[in-house]
From TrEMBL:
Organism whose genome encodes this protein: Reticulomyxa filosa
Keywords, sorted A to Z: Coiled coil, Membrane, Protein transport, Transmembrane, Transmembrane helix, Transport
Membrane topology: Single-pass type IV membrane protein
A single BP term in Gene Ontology: vesicle fusion
Record-annotated T-SNARE coiled-coil homology domain positions: 31-93
GO CC terms: endoplasmic reticulum membrane; ER to Golgi transport vesicle membrane; Golgi apparatus; late endosome membrane; SNARE complex
InterPro entries noted in UniProt: NPSN/SNAP25-like_N_SNARE, T_SNARE_dom
Major place of residence: membrane
Protein name, entry field: t-SNARE coiled-coil homology domain-containing protein
Length: 415
């Protein structure tokens, strides 16, 4: 029931068409609008504060992610350096292996040439070892074919290059922080501009009312004069005094919407105007002219300045309504923009999280590849040593064969 009564009361003063019928209701509605404006201002400050908190928390999270990204970048740089080092070692090992192969091949060819020369010499002398020439040549040809096949395999392995893993990371936290802090500062500045426009409107209205009161006071003092007020001007003077009091009262109401410093300043101005009007009333009382009561002053005001007061009040009320609607729309726009910013920030955080997950997977794959490369290098080292041992054994076998051939030839020559 209380809410329904409050709604009816607010509906009663929804417009300013009936302001002339009940001035007290208009004042109450003005105070109600003032409370709503204060609530809107407080809510705007809360929104800006919440925005700052969200921006600060998001900036901290982005900073943490940036630190993690820098660590990952450093790890990737170390991995890249290790891969480059491993690549250089592999190339060096490959060159050494190829050099050893070429040297061994040359030695084998030299041995084969020596064997052929010995066999040719024995053939000229009619030695029976000439019968084994075909078998020796067959063995040499098989060995040469095996060497050629190995060289072909090494050629294909040499053309397989290890690709370098390089991932370029962008510093997104700094841009969010700056982006979020810039958005928060823009919202704050826009809110301050709106408040300044609102306060400038109030200052202009109060300045206008102050000028009117000063003008009325000057007119009353000019009409009083040294000889007093004429009888025909008494009602006009009373109406002007009532008009000045009403303006002072409206200034006192408008003063409540200002901040503390401006309110103190205008309180002093209002008190000075009130003292001037009180001084004029005291002067009239000494002259035997009694001023009317507050109710009579209001009735006189409504009779003499009714149209002007109604038009001013209606226009002022409409401007206040328009200002309230504009503030409400601006608040909705701010909330919508904040929601969009929150959605964008969440999306960016999600993308960064996905990137971190991908980078983690890449690091795992890189670690596996490094382990595999280490095993391959060890295997190649073992194969290289094995090949050297085999080549040495083959070389020794050829030397043994040559020694046997030479010794056999010498024995046959002696016999």
């Amino acid at each position: 029931m209380d809410k329904q009564k409050q709604k009816k009361k607010n509906k009663k003063w929804k417009t300013f068409g009936d302001i002339g019928k009940n001035e007290e209701g208009a004042i109450l509605y003005g105070r109600h609008m003032q409370d709503q404006q204060h609530e809107l201002a407080d809510r705007g400050i809360e929104i800006i504060t919440e925005t700052k908190e969200v921006a600060r928390n998001t900036a901290e999270r982005v900073h943490e992610q940036t630190v993690q990204l820098k660590k990952i970048d450093n790890n990737l740089s170390e991995i890249d350096n290790e891969l480059s080092r491993a690549t250089r070692i592999m190339r060096r090992i490959g060159r050494r292996v190829m050099t050893d192969k070429y040297v061994m091949c040359l030695l084998v060819l030299v041995l084969i040439a020596v064997v052929i020369a010995v066999l040719l010499a024995l053939e000229k002398r009619g030695n029976f070892f000439f019968l084994q020439l075909h078998m020796i040549c067959f063995i040499c040809v098989c060995k040469m074919l095996s060497v050629v096949v190995k060289h072909i395999c090494l050629f294909f392995l040499k053309n397989v290059d290890n690709s370098k893993v390089r991932i370029l990371l962008q510093n997104l936290s700094t841009v969010s922080i700056l982006y979020l802090l810039t958005i928060a500062e823009e919202l704050k500045q826009s809110q301050l501009i709106k408040y300044n426009i609102f306060y400038s409107k109030i200052f202009a209205d109060m300045q206008h009312m102050e000028d009117e009161v000063k003008k009325v006071v000057v007119e009353i003092r000019s009409q009083c004069g040294p000889s007093g007020v004429r009888e025909g001007d008494i009602n006009v003077v009373k109406s002007k005094i009532a008009f000045a009091k009403n303006k002072i009262k409206m200034m006192n109401i408008e003063k409540r919407q200002l901040d503390a410093n401006s309110s103190r300043k205008w309180s002093q101005i209002i008190q000075d105007l009130r003292d001037q009007v009180t001084d004029i009333e005291s002067t009239l009382n000494w002259q035997g002219i009694k001023t009317d009561t507050e109710e009579t002053n209001l009735n006189s005001l409504m009779c003499v300045f009714k149209k002007k007061a109604e038009e001013d009040a209606i226009n002022y009320g409409r401007s206040q309504q328009d200002l309230q609607h504009k503030l409400a729309e601006d608040g909705l726009e701010m909330m919508a923009s904040m929601q969009d910013i929150a959605v964008d920030t969440t999306q960016k955080m999600k993308e960064q999280t996905e990137k971190l997950v991908d980078i983690g997977k890449t690091l795992d794959e890189t670690e596996n590849e490094l382990g595999r490369a280490t095993r391959i290098i060890k295997r190649m080292g073992r194969k290289m040593l094995t090949d050297k041992y085999i080549m040495v054994l083959i070389f020794l076998v050829f030397l043994g064969i040559i020694a046997i051939i030479v010794l056999s030839a010498l024995k046959n020559k002696i016999h």
